[in-house]
Specification:
10% strand, Reverse transcriptase domain-containing protein, coiled coil, 22 helices, disordered N terminus, RT_dom, 17 strands
Length: 758
């Protein structure tokens, strides 16, 4: 009996596809058809029993679902057609390049749910166009049943009945290996990949938009892994080099000298003079060979440094100048999971924030939020400005793929447009892989590391477009004051403006001999402690449309993370409080929330008045770094207390040990004690503070800071001279390494153009 008709797709001029790709193109998806002694499993809402077996022989070829086949060949045919896999098997299969993570799920209208095995319509059936499939995505997703198989029994759940299917996450699911994608200069490889992926995706993608997103990323990863391979993990074993002839000769001469020395000690007077002459000749020869070997070793070292530099010049500069953070995490898996549980859990997550009368209530917007369909230009701009070397998310796809595949990015835009219309993100965007980055040198404990979350690139592109529209809406209606909150705002040089204004305020207070109170405040774990209720309330106060707020609320409700450190991976941890550091929309949401708090504190106090006639705000912030400036000590104390109450209302807290205070009375620095959350705030006289790249101390001058910059510059130049690189590479490091690092101190500190020497 003929099981199916194979279909061969081939075009002249197209590159030859790999075996897996040819299989996908020749065998499109068809309806599930059983063999002579197989019966299709029922697809209803009730739990169905396993099919009746008509085969009486049992030769050990029994499927996991209970079906008994005649021989091993029949078992393979049955498993390939009915997609029977071993229960509770969700691990990633890496031994074959064409297979990825699988779940034992069978759809009612399709023969399989796994990737990359293709599913398509029958050869003589008309397939709907891609645009029709995208328009019908919402209806397909709403009525499409999902069948869960457990222990040979299948349970069907329909979304139209109001029952959401639960997705089982495997704790032991390993992280996907990084693919060794070609460089951006290899246009031929990218063009061939783009064309092949377009043919495969055009023949295989079907179903809801969620299934299409998952299938597309899985196929991209499988094809990329099969074609380009993966990046080797860990350090490669070093090969022990063999000694050359000169080294062997040096070893022989040193042995000769040892033996001659022993003979010289026991020799008589007549023998010592010839032995001494022989030892002298041997030493001269050894000295010549050693000098030549030293020169060879130096040349080899320079060649190695040159190779390391050309492989990654910027990474070489970081290693040469010394990285700020270094170390290795030494905590166990249980300790890390307990730390993550304490950091990202919130018992009061479901409670609304208390009513606050002082909270700012903005006016109705003049410009409405842009809720139109996503434009291709928006998606293209996000991908163009993204860094190609960014780490991939859980699905293993990086920005580099979409940067070099124009057809693929257009297909992604069509899928993102459907997701935007329904205002609901796909499930695969709700999980993130994470890693630990050391904060300081020789970091060992988990508290000395910061976390970076890696999300799927497709979700980051979608959220980046949403972030741009949100930023444009907030700035267009003047909801965010860039004089107060400069962090996260595009085309605003917040750091230099922030430090310049603070420096000018201190200089005028010293010259005019007036009073001034300055407080540098630091929030404790600001990004990880901001409640989701505060983010939702901020969007509501700024009149963001309810559909956008609901989509973001669902995103923060379902996000899960896990982290990899060393040889272990933690369990999935739900994000109940805080925002993700690698999320593209989190920056603007955090900046908007901090702006709402800071603007609510401005009423009781007025900031200092500069000589130019411009009055500065009493509180200014760059993301979570807040600076309070008041005309008098009393106003500064009032502002500090009011700000502390607002932060406490928002379920956040300050870190007094990292905060600083500076009191100026009649142009002179005074020591005065201030408390924050019942703890004393150190003064800049006790501990100088470094804010946005500039150091402030009790002298109100830059002489000490300029001396430190000069010492640092001399150290950098010395390291470059001793690197052993050629002159043109040293000049490149001067231009792209030293100059950018020295420009910032030259901007924030007042270096004299000339200096008199005694």
């Amino acid at each position: 009996m003929r099981l199916g008709k194979s279909k061969c797709i081939s075009c002249e001029g197209e590159p030859i596809l790999h075996a897996m790709e040819r299989y996908i193109l020749r065998h499109p998806r068809g309806c599930a058809r059983a063999r002579e002694d197989e019966q299709p499993i029922g697809q209803d809402q009730e739990t169905t029993m396993e099919p009746t077996r008509t085969t009486n022989q049992n030769n050990g070829c029994k499927c996991f679902c209970g079906k008994v086949c005649k021989n091993s060949r029949g078992l393979k045919i049955h498993q390939s057609r009915m997609k029977c896999v071993q229960p509770h098997s969700g691990n990633q299969r890496t031994e074959r390049s064409g297979q990825t993570e699988e779940e034992t799920i069978q759809e009612a209208n399709h023969s399989d749910d796994s990737l990359p095995v293709t599913q398509g319509e029958d050869e003589h059936e008309e397939q709907p166009t891609e645009v029709e499939q995208l328009d019908e995505a919402e209806e397909i997703e709403r009525i499409e049943p999902t069948v869960h198989r457990e222990d040979g029994i299948e349970t069907t759940v329909r979304k139209e009945d109001g029952i959401e299917p639960t997705t089982r996450r495997e704790e032991n699911e390993p992280r996907k290996e990084k693919i060794k994608w070609p460089t951006n200069a290899d246009k031929a490889a990218w063009k061939a990949l783009d064309e092949d992926l377009e043919n495969i995706l055009e023949a295989t993608l079907a179903g809801s938009v969620d299934r299409k997103i998952t299938a597309m990323t899985s196929i991209i990863y499988s094809v990329g892994k099969d074609r380009f391979g993966v990046v080797p993990q860990g350090k490669q074993p070093t090969k022990l080099g063999h000694s050359n002839r000169r080294q062997k000769k040096i070893k022989e001469l040193r042995g000769d000298l040892r033996r001659l020395k022993k003979r010289y000690k026991v020799a008589n007077e007549n023998e010592r003079l010839p032995l001494q002459q022989l030892r002298k000749e041997t030493r001269e020869k050894l000295k010549t060979l050693t000098r030549a070997e030293t020169h060879r070793r130096d040349r080899k070292k320079k060649a190695k440094e040159r190779t390391t530099f050309t492989a990654n010049p910027f990474q070489y500069m970081k290693r040469l100048f010394g990285a700020r953070g270094s170390g290795k995490l030494e905590n166990s898996r249980e300790e890390v999971e307990e730390h993550l549980r304490k950091t990202h859990s919130d018992e009061r997550r479901g409670e609304d924030l208390e009513e606050c009368e002082k909270l700012l209530t903005p006016e109705e917007p003049k410009e409405q939020f842009d809720e139109s369909d996503l434009k291709f230009q928006e998606v293209q701009d996000v991908v163009r400005k993204a860094r190609a070397g960014s780490a991939p998310g859980p699905n293993g796809i990086s920005y580099r793929v979409y940067k070099n595949c124009p057809r693929l990015i257009r297909r992604l835009w069509k899928l993102l447009k459907v997701i935007w219309r329904r205002r609901k993100m796909t499930e695969s965007w709700y999980k993130a892989e994470g890693c630990f980055i050391p904060k300081e040198e020789n970091s060992r404990k988990v508290e000395q590391f910061r976390t970076i979350s890696l999300l799927n690139i497709e979700g980051k592109i979608f959220l980046a477009v949403l972030a741009r529209r949100t930023t444009r809406y907030l700035l267009g209606n003047e909801y965010i004051d860039i004089a107060v909150q400069k962090g996260g705002m595009p085309e605003v040089s917040g750091c230099i403006e922030h430090t310049s204004v603070i420096t000018q305020i201190l200089r005028e207070a010293k010259e005019k001999k007036s009073d001034l109170a300055v407080f540098w405040l630091d929030l404790a774990n600001a990004y990880g402690s901001i409640p989701h209720k505060l983010v939702d309330l901020t969007l509501e106060r700024y009149h963001v449309p309810p559909t956008i707020r609901t989509m973001l609320r669902e995103y923060f409700d379902k996000i899960e993370m896990r982290f990899t450190a060393g040889d272990f991976t933690t369990a999935w941890q739900r994000l109940e409080v805080g925002i993700l550091t690698g999320c593209t929309v989190s920056v603007v949401l955090f900046a908007a929330a901090m702006n709402l708090i800071v603007k609510s504190v401005e009423k009781p106090s007025r900031g200092p008045l500069l000589s130019s006639g411009v009055r500065q705000p009493p509180v200014r912030a760059f993301m979570d770094d807040m600076t309070v400036t008041a005309k008098t000590v009393i106003e500064g104390r009032w502002t500090l207390e009011e700000l502390e109450r607002m932060i406490k209302w928002a379920r956040m807290k300050f870190k007094p040990s990292k905060s600083r205070s500076l009191i100026v009375r009649k142009g002179k620095v005074q020591d005065e004690t201030f408390e924050l959350a019942g703890e004393k705030i150190p003064t800049v006289g006790e501990k100088p503070v470094k804010c946005l790249g500039k150091k402030f101390d009790a002298t109100l001058a830059d002489m000490v800071n300029m001396g430190e910059v000069q010492v640092q510059l001399v150290e950098w130049l010395t390291k470059i001279d001793k690197s052993g690189l050629p002159g043109r590479y040293k000049a490149w490091i001067y231009q792209h390494g030293v100059l950018p690092r020295i420009l910032w101190p030259l901007l924030v500190y007042e270096f004299p153009l000339s200096k008199l020497r005694p």
